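Problem 12. The chain below contains 382 residues. Write out its predicted structure in token notation.
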Amino acid sequence: MAADSHDLLFGFPLKWVSLVTLIIQNSALALLLRYSQTAGRSSRPYLPSTAVVTSECLKFIVCLIVHIRAETSRIRAASSLSLSSSASNLSSYTLRTLMFDMFGPNSDWLKMTVPAILYFIQNNLQYVAVRHLDAATFQVTYQLKILTTALFSVWLLGRTLGKLKWVSLCLLTFGIALVQYDPSKGKNAKAAGDGLDDDRDGAGMERLVGLAAVGVACVLSGLAGVWFERVLKESQSSLFLRNLQLGIFSIIPGFFFGVWVVDGPQVYEHGFFQGYNIWTVAAILCQAVGGLIVAVVVKYADNILKGFATSISIILSCIASVFLFDFRITVPFTVGAGIVLYATHLYGQPDPRGQSKRDSRADLAYLRLEDGNGVPGSKRSG
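Solution.
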């Protein structure tokens, strides 16, 4: 259990406020991403590349403000306790100091380019996946990131997983596979005439593209998360400083390769914010604040409650998809989703017999949908 669990917000325990907020955010994100690209879109669809860059810029600004405030408070506190006149002059955090912390010889900024680029690709793939899959299927299938993260942690970090976690990962894989099965497809294929072959093939290909996008996004999410964890273990730098590095190295390739190279002609003709409306802005804001919410949850609650909140958000997304997107819940989907929910809960249980614990700093990954964040007040080295 995290510390400060008795802190209150408007008279309510901050732990439960953050959990309820996380449930709402997780449920709304998949729905907003889907709705903003389908029923809620403008006459001209918006470009996912611009949405990703805008979201990263918002995260960067928030991290910058929090990091500067934390470092300024730390420096002033240190100078007030010091009797030397030289230390008393260090009462502010300058731009030069920020640049040195981000790109200096001991900043490890080059290592941070790898997860930053992986996160940039992953975010774009999320938009592709939600455009070709219903929100419920996307939400359930995206839990595959738990498996990829676990496998990469065993491979790159040499972590040993207990039997309970391996069982949960097997259940997770089986449940996600079961969600993809639709028994009505075989019946429709026999009853349908030749004139519907092209429609069925088109729908099947569209679903295949969405599933492939989710699969690759989960692999990139797992690799980026484990890489980031490895850098955190080798460094004492502030988590928000690391988030700033990740942000800047996500914005640069996002703008030049995503916006300029890939979508440059469309941006030049119709503008950077083409197709934006209230639903687009809501989706971007929801994605941008997601990591901040997870940061509060990790600080004031624990991973078991966080997994519980994720499970509740999946259920809410499925129910909302029925009314918003005419999603049809089948028996295989219900059973598979139930297995995924149970596997998610099981994976969050503590290992028996005191098996090695995860670095608590690494649980605070980058500020984004799947996992990751910095926590205010983290100390930096030096």
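Discussion. The CA atoms of residues 86 and 365 lie 36 Å apart. Students who got a different answer should revisit the alignment rule from Section 12.3.
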